[in-house]
Each structure stands twice: as C-alpha cells, then as structure tokens.
Fold:
Amino acid sequence: MRRFRMLALGASMLVLLSACSTGGGSPQPTTGASSAGKPTIKLGSDAFYESKLMAEIYGQALEAKGYTVDRTASGLGTRKVTAAALESGKFDLKPEYIGSGLAFYSGTATGDPAANASALQTILTGKGGGITVLNYSPAADQNAFVVTKATADGKHLATLSDTTAVASQLKFGVATDCATNPVCAAALKTAYGLDLSTALPLSACDQPMADALTAGTIDVGELCSTQPDIAKNGWVVLTDDKHTQPADNIAPLVRNDLLAKVDMASFEKILNDVSAKMTTDALTKLNAEFVFDKKDIAVIAKEWLKTNGFV
Structure:
C-alpha cells in the first residue's frame, strides 16, 4: 500500500490488502467530450480499496460540476505503476499519500504534512511535463498507536506522551521490524522515553494485531490510522504529539497539461474543497462501510459527497 508505511511496517497488511483486491464496483468508464467543452478527466488510483475510494470521491465531485470522468485507470496497480502512468499522461489525476509519495521518489518524509507536500511538489514539478500537488486533506493513513476506549479512559490516555507515565503498566504490540525501524523503537524512545524492547512483535495493520488488542494480550497496538477495525470497535488513536511518524495525508496529483485545459481556479477548488472535508475519522468509517458492510465504493462515495453538500 502506501510505500513508506510498507517500509515501516513490513509486508503485513493482510486485512487491507485482501480488501484491496476485491474491487470497488465503480461506475463504468465514460469517454468523449465533457459538457460545455470541458475536457474528459482521466482518473487513476493505486489498486487498494482506500485509494480507489478517494479517486471515486474526487471523480464524482468533478462529475457534479459537469466534467466527464474516465475511470479506466482506477485501481491500476502499485505506486510504481501509477506514478509512471501519471508521468506519461496515461491518466491525469490520482489521490496520493504525500509522505509515501515523497519516499517513493527518495525524498525524506517527516511528521510535517506541509513539508512533505512542499518537498513532493519540488520533485513532481520536473516529472512528466509537470505535476501539481493540490491541497492535502486532514485525513492521513499512517502508522498509529491505538488503545481500547476502556484503556484510554482507565489510564487517561489521549496522546503518546500520556503513555510515558504509565508505560510500565502497558503492554505494547509493535510491527515485527520495530527494533530496527527508525520510526518505531528508536523514534519512540527518543521522543517519549518508551522502552519497546519487551514489546510483542506482531503483523501491524493486520488481524493478529487487532485480535491481540481485542483479547487484551496487548494494551497499545500499532495499526494504520484508517484501519476499519478502529471504527468498528470504537478504539482510540493516540495522538503522536511529538510527530515521530511520517505524515501521510492525502492530496490529489494533477498533470499540468490538464490544468492548462480547464478553468484552473474553479477546477482546483472542486478538489480542494473535497479534500478539506475528508478527515481521518471520516475515512476510517468509510473504509469500515466497504470492509464490514460490503457496500459498493461508488455508493459510499456518493453518500459521503451528498452528506457533505457536494452533490
């Protein structure tokens, strides 16, 4: 999935990856000229379901403003595939996770989303004739440390800093590569004084971690911030208040040659307004609708856009 997160957590995303392979049931691609002379927007995304969902939300928002959207490249493949396709002009627009996108191009991702977006823009300015990073959303799918509501209430936990005083009373579950991963054991030791040498290594963003948290085998589990289990179980994501984890907020990437064909200000506003409304909590709930309620991606997207006044 997000390349940086795969590096950080290892190849352990069975829950998300299995869901990613199921497809989203999005509307059939449409081609031809858009209304009022607007160009057809060729929409792309990575293959996992969350990326396809975000692409569908952007696509339907554009359709509501009179654009025709071609979804042929939605769910096209991994970032390696979609980055090359966007650069070559196979499609015009895709949602991107800015920290992972930056890491893909060998940049250094940080916990500051503005810095990540700026660094990614610097790189993409010279790619494929120019690609623009639009405004990133509050929604971020990144490494997260999660507790049950009972643990949060009982130990008065809201941030990772809060765990420092009660660390001896908490059993941590961490990614299997945590001991050697620079954003795991070392980062949490430096920032929060947490000693994870006795933490239980488990597949992060995977069912074993979720099951261990449910069973009480661990008190704090390393998951991914938009993992559906969080919404399903009412778990609490502890705020990484010292910004140890790379920020992976979502932003649309758009080819500059497409922007030259549209009213740039109004086109960007459509996408930026959508991004501004998408939060991590909202995206987690949408993911849960797909994974647990088995709802169609196009239906989920339409309902969210309608609820938020875009359609």
Notes: Residues 100 and 106 are 10 Å apart (CA to CA). The chain has 15 helices and ten strands. The radius of gyration is 20 Å. The chain has two domains: 3-140+247-307, 143-238.
